[in-house]
Amino acid sequence: EIATSRTDLPAVMLGQVSDMVVGADVLAGGFPLGTDLAGPATFTRGIVSAVRVLSDGQKYIQTDAAINPGNSGGCLFTLQGKMIGVPSAGIEPPGEDIEGIGLAVPIDDLLGFIQNTVP
């Protein structure tokens, strides 16, 4: 879910997935484990591994930045502070010991969804 509200807080700068380069550094921010790790947001650093379309038809930014419960739904930033996506999932196939496959929905797709959905 994405919450939208009107506020006097400064807006975050938005990037575009078309500006992303595979290998570019990114930061995934959020609140992993929610109240179990109470306190300010945390950030994990990773790279853009790929931009791909999965079997669900959705485009994703693949990153090796840790995507965990609590920072999914947060923000994926460039090192220049531009938001490029919303972390949504980490992939761990059953019985596999795979790490470093996190997925974020590109901000471009989210903006299109919001413009077509939110009155």
Question: How would you summarize this macromolecular structure in one to three sentences?
Answer:
With 119 residues, the chain is mainly β. 9% of the residues lie in helices and 34% in strands.
Largest sheet: 6 strands, antiparallel, barrel
What is the CATH architecture assignment?
Beta Barrel
Q: Regions with pLDDT < 50 over 5+ consecutive residues?
A: none
SS content category: mainly beta
Would you give an account of this structure?
- The chain is mostly beta strands.
- It has a single domain (17-117), classed as Thrombin, subunit H (Beta Barrel).
- It is 9% helix and 34% strand.
- The protein contains one helix and six strands.
- The protein has one helix at 107-117, and strands spanning 25-30, 42-53, 59-63, 75-78, 83-90, 102-106.
- A six-stranded antiparallel barrel has the order 1-2-3-6-5-4.
- The longest helix has 11 residues, at 107-117.
- The two termini are 16 Å apart.
- 21% of the residues are buried.
- The model has no long low-confidence stretch (mean pLDDT 81).
Strand-helix topology:
Elements: E1 25-30, E2 42-53, E3 59-63, E4 75-78, E5 83-90, E6 102-106, H1 107-117
Antiparallel strand pairs: 1-2, 1-4, 2-3, 3-6, 4-5, 5-6
List keywords for this structure.
119 residues, mainly beta, Thrombin, subunit H, six-stranded antiparallel beta barrel, 1 helix, 6 strands, 34% strand, globular
